[in-house]
Amino acid sequence: MNFKAFLKKKNIEISWHRYLIDAMGSMAQGLFASLLIGTILGTAGTQFGIKALEEMGGYAKTVSGPAMAVAIAFSLKAPNLVLFSMLAVGSAANAIGGAGGPLAVLVIAIIATEFGKLVSKETKIDILVTPLVSIGIGVALAMLIAEPIGKAAGRIGDIIMWATDLQPLLMGILVSVIVGIALTLPISSAAICAAFSLTGLAGGAAVAGCCAQMVGFAVMSFRENGVGGLVSQGIGTSMLQMGNIVKNPRIWIPPILASAITGPIATCVFHLQMNGAPISSGMGTCGFVGQIGIYTGWVNDISSGAKSAITSTDWIGLALVCFILPAVLSWAFCMVLRKMKWIKENDLKLPE
Description:
With 352 residues, the chain is mainly α.
């Protein structure tokens, strides 16, 4: 059996799709089921004085590294022994990676999983060999490269946030448009924001861009998809439109233009900041996670003394940037393109 056939037998597919779409998307789900939910529970516990919720949130947040690594291994179709071994690998990579831990986990978990799959069920003492190889390679890599990867990711995030603070208009547009596009593409905007620890004004711009895509597509396609489409895209994902975008890329123009407007409004007018969990920056209105993250950030800022109180301007800015402006702008731009015949009837129709 040649090496290519051996890789096929082991279900190892070296491709951008598997590593940057499947693995990254699953990593975001792992983060959602640990760090993000833990943050929401902890915030609710603090706000309502329920200590049990605070403790539940704390437990959930502490397993974010293992949750990410197991989710990545699951997406790579790892055998059970490899899958379970990723608990230790994810814990090591996330802890050593620091602020850029999610990116370190992504890289290291992929490598460790694939090596684990190579040796899986190849010996009579598989129960020892597979975990030994998976954990040994994964933790060794974490000790060698997790810190540099984490620092590099953190540095990139710092540069983006510094540039946004320095040039809120230009960076508000760029961050909003780029992260919003990433949300609709079959990659994970949430994982990207988590990997680079994107918070502050840059995080606020990212939220604006994601909301523009989700709310924008939901509203502008209402005539084709009705209430079901409004909900599935508005609080689900705008990725549902990807097939239609491939057929007619012009349908992407309205939400992109909307994000280019709402991004700088978020950064320059309302100074909307995401100081909650970085993953929330890339979630938009999906389950209202982006808005919960912003609220969590307000609570954190009040606790630290950085903010005295949540004002009416804060709430107005949140409503305008996340819901009202994306809906109005995308609908208006879409109407223009419909009149120009760039968008035709059923171009935005979701599959049944």
